[in-house]
Amino acid sequence: MNAIALEFKKNAVRTVKDLQRRQLVKTALGNFEIARNDKVARFQDWQKARYVAAKLKWEALENLHANIQRLEENLKKNGAIVHWAATAEEARRIVSAIAKEKNARLIVKSKAMTAEEIHLNEALEKEGYEVVETDLGEFIVQLRREPPYHIVFPAMHLTRYEISDLFAQKLGSQPTDKAEELTMIARRVLREKYIKADIGITGANFAVADCGVISITENEGNARLTAALPKVMITLIGIEKVIPKLEDLALFLPMLATAGAAQLISGYNTFYSGPRKNGETDGPQEYHVILLDNGRTELLADPIERDALRCIRCGACLNVCPIYRTIGGHSYGTTYCGPIGAVITPIMRGIEDWQQLSYASSLCGACAEICPVKIILHHHLLKNRKIAATKKPVWWQKIGFKIFSKISTCPTLWSIITKCGRLLQKLHPLVKGSRLDPAYAWTKERDLPPIAPQTFKEWWRSKK
């Protein structure tokens, strides 16, 4: 077992034992589920909407090459500067070059999972830039120096008391248990950052090819301020977010709000196409759009797995996943956690290092049932497991399988081993919880089923 898998196991075990944290997440997601079901019921036909959304996204992926070229052309017509980034390193280099050219010191960021994916904050901070997250949840976890816990709700694992203590320690505020007061504390700090910022960085929910428009959905208004006040705006977006037509958003925006935030429509849905025009009072003087690949074309090349690129990052699959609810978002050790993360991470970052995520699933299918774009996630998890199983086993696994093959194909040996097993199972308490190899100590967390006192053949002979 590699270091990444061992770290995953260690983190999962620690979270499983934190019953208070698990209850907090369970309660939050339980309340969310009630609200989401209420909004789903208001659709005339939710299942038909899922079917249409899935079809639109599939067609967009099938024609991604043409759609993304059209997006680039129209963005340039609107005055935007378009960059292509094949890798995370290249994307970081582009952002760094823009910041250096503009002599930037302070950079504000709205919610951007692509920035988390390429570890942009850490890279910019190493170069001496001050980077401030402006989404409230992201701002909180940034102060804690930890990654988001959830794709949509980054700080859902924290209580208001923990946030109050954090603000008192980092911002010098007075302790409070009122959510409104905590929000105002963050607001006072962030408003000053907006005014002083040299560059604003955003993610994006969709990119519309036919008119060269970037669509950003939010509920706090921080993305609008991030885009409106700094002189330079940068949008970092994965190439799979491209959709063909503006009218497609009439379906995607309410579906994203319903599945992701239990709303009929999100508070702010803003379109960006280029820099500030003549006569406009706010907006950036310069607008950059970075189209990020970072393994997406490799995923697109797989005729089965490309289905996962339909994802609109609503987080619905995380909300219903019993494994995510139990082990939490930080246990996964990667940007995209939950079922969708367990599908795309092994493919985009290497099945050898990340295959354990595909086994972090009960295969109950709840994620596929709730996905607004009908990604059959548990089938992809099974495919990842199949790929992992074809990898060359380690030496002791080879020896073990050869021994088992000999025993299982020889009736005499099987009979002897079975009889010996009945005697040896009495020694089970001596090996239960063995620490010789904690990664494979099956009985450490499971009961070993007792061997039957009599085999079928023995029973049949007794009847004769």
Overview of this structure, please?
This protein is of the alpha/beta class. The chain has three domains: 1-42 and 308-391, Fumarate Reductase Iron-sulfur Protein, Chain B, domain 2; 64-294, NagB/RpiA/CoA transferase-like (Rossmann fold), CATH 3.40.50; 411-463, no CATH class. Helices cover 52% and strands 10% of the residues. It contains 23 helices and ten strands. The protein has helices spanning 3-17, 19-40, 46-62, 64-77, 88-101, 113-117, 120-126, 136-143, 160-171, 179-196, 222-228, 249-261, 296-300, 316-320, 322-327, 338-349, 351-354, 366-370, 377-389, 395-408, 411-424, 428-431, 456-463, and strands at residues 81-85, 106-109, 130-133, 199-202, 206-208, 213-218, 232-238, 242-243, 268-272, 286-292. Strands 1-10-7-4-2-3 form a six-stranded parallel sheet, sandwiched between helices. The chain has a four-stranded mixed sheet with strand order 8-5-6-9. Helix 2 packs antiparallel against helix 12 (249-261) and helix 16 runs parallel beside helix 19. The protein is globular, with a radius of gyration of 26 Å. The two termini are 50 Å apart. The model is unreliable at 430-440 (pLDDT under 50).
